[in-house]
Design brief:
The chain has 268 residues and is of the alpha+beta class. Strands 1-2-3-4-6-5 form a 6-stranded mixed beta sheet. It has 12 helices and 6 strands.
Length: 268
């Protein structure tokens, strides 16, 4: 697949797409072929990203690295076809680029790609969006577990989550039968037990949380602020109070409380 075709299919923002295509038309991608292919090696993908940044040099607007991510993702389409993975899963997975740029725009007012540290997973054939959730083949202590991620635009209703999990189990059974008994895990602030005191029992978040056995309370984090309040500011006093959860969370933070990114495994 060509970069232009991928940009069109995922409806990349026109201003960003124009800059990406302009760069791609003049760039020799063979100069970074080694790094882009190394994205497919889970243990080496972060090292490959660092090497890529060195090769690209100054990239103040991150268009260069976005173009390279899109190139790796476009080339990956051939692997999807070889494994008979549907276009629905492929394009749903690759729409992460458009979604991430939209998310950054909402917070900063600037169209900007800043999630390249994460998209090595999509560009390296390690993460797939299947229905409402994303599933990453994570290498942990010599084993592979299926890491569950929640995109910001996901339908978080119980029925939608049920459907996604069912499709994912079928996907991995078909394409990676060796992972048939792999654990499905999630590492997220959404699994913090303190949320039970901030939400009613019928909430989608608690329904999701109750699917997991928490095996580690996790580390204190502030990344949840980005998703709950649509800002990266840690000035708790100015956080919005538009929803009940925002209000209760703000009160919790202002009283000295913290939120942890807990680790859970799906209950069988």
């Amino acid at each position: 697949m060509k970069i232009q075709a991928l940009c069109d299919k995922i409806q990349l923002q026109p201003e960003i797409k124009s800059s990406v295509i302009e760069f791609a038309n003049d760039f020799d991608f063979s100069s970074v072929d080694k790094q882009l292919k190394l994205f497919r090696n889970y243990e080496k993908m972060s090292e490959a990203l660092s090497e890529l940044q060195i090769v690209l040099g100054k990239d103040t607007d991150n268009i260069k690295i976005l173009a390279c991510m899109l190139k790796a993702s476009a080339d990956e389409y051939e692997i999807y076809m070889e494994k008979d993975i549907s276009d629905d899963i492929y394009f749903s997975t690759m729409k992460c680029y458009t979604r991430f740029i939209d998310e950054t725009f909402k917070m900063t007012g600037k169209l900007y790609f800043d999630r390249y540290w994460w998209t090595i997973r999509q560009a390296g054939f390690h993460l797939f969006r299947i229905g409402e959730l994303e599933y990453e083949m994570k290498h942990i202590d010599g084993d592979i577990v299926i890491g569950i991620h929640i995109p910001s635009d996901a339908d978080f209703s119980p029925s939608a989550i049920d459907a996604s999990l069912a499709r994912a189990r079928q996907f991995f059974a078909t394409n990676y039968p060796e992972l048939l008994n792999a654990e499905y895990r999630c590492h997220s602030w959404l699994l913090d037990s303190q949320l039970k005191g901030m939400l009613n029992e019928s909430s989608n978040i608690l329904n999701f949380q109750n699917r997991f056995e928490i095996f580690d309370e996790g580390e204190v984090g502030t990344d949840f602020i980005e998703w709950l309040y649509n800002t990266k500011s840690t000035d708790y006093a100015v956080l919005p109070e538009n929803t009940s959860l925002q209000r209760k969370m703000k009160e919790h933070l202002l009283s000295g409380g913290v939120i942890r990114n807990a680790y859970g495994r799906i209950k069988e």
